[in-house]
Amino acid sequence: MKMKTILAAGAAAFMLASPVLADEIRIAHVYGKTGALEAYAAQSHNGLMLGLEYATGGTMEINGDKIVVIEKDTQIKPDIGKAVLAEAYGDDEVDIAVGPVSSGVALAMLPVAQEYEKILIVEPAVADSITGENWNRYIFRTGRNSSQDAISNAVALGGEGVTIATLAQDYAFGRDGVAAFREALESSGAKIAHEEYVPTDTTDFTAAAERIFNAMEGIEGEKKLFIIWAGGGNPMGKINAMDPSRFGIEIATGGNILAALKAYKELPGMEGATYYYYEIPKNPVNDWLVKEHMDRFGSPPDFFTAGGMAAGIAVVEAIKKAGSTDTEALITAMEGMEWETPKGTMRFRKEDHQALQSMYHFRTEVQEGKDYGVPVLVREIGIDDMDIPIRN
To answer: Which of 36, 73, 90, 103 is least surrounded, with the fewest CB atoms within 10 Å of its CB?
Structure first.
């Protein structure tokens, strides 16, 4: 079967007008180029393009068919995400779509993939429900899910006599994250004493912090405030400025992008679990990514760059394995598929198409020459160390 294409898109109008050629493989990157998560989006796109380049040996071709990537901006709005994905599948005739950044947008996009019977590789949206109750067979996810975040952080933070409060954004990412974290803690001996949810655009955390402090007051033993947050606002730094230590409370959180790690510098010794930090994984793919990113951008690859690269490599490996861009052939090829990424081996689980992958227990250090708290590896939490629930 002849394959179609993908390419780094220039002007959207040009791409819409350009005819579909028989020797093209078309990939849509549907992501929030503008909006509150645009820093994440830029990393994801750079990573996707690097992954396609790496997996094709720099040719940007698969079996002689040229890859063409068409970019679509969701603006972090579910209705727009849904519309532009339909446009990509229908008008642009793409073979596979990748994205988006926001869990709320991803949930709106899932039925579109089912309607058009086309693959959507979700990267990096996190909510469990994407490969859980809202999942359909056309959805694969290279990004980690809330349960992987939660279980790895429970391993890092849980224990007998530990009491935890949570602070999260009041939408799918935050609520799914806390639900999974609560469940993961059950076998650790720790307990959650209070859950606090605030709007995604919150910048003043005074009232939320006071409710947390009041709920934790009088509790004996080790006490932690676990923060699940995406985007701006810096709740960790602002709550730390309120001196939670006077209530015996330690702040804890998972990993994040380098810009967000600046707040971690105020909390040396803080522990948690992270999806990626460029100095942690030791493998040839990550070595290539770090070198190329430094050479091209003058900075190390970040959290979502690694995820985008994993998605790009998955696209190429899936098409090679399937021998075409036929959707049913791709699903057969991708179920159970293993491939190498900057994080090491990933595997698409057959039951829900979630990528199983390592996570990393870290401890924050202040290091000379770095303006952020460095997440230093305590131990790798491998695929076999986490029992990730199947929720669909």
So the answer is: 90
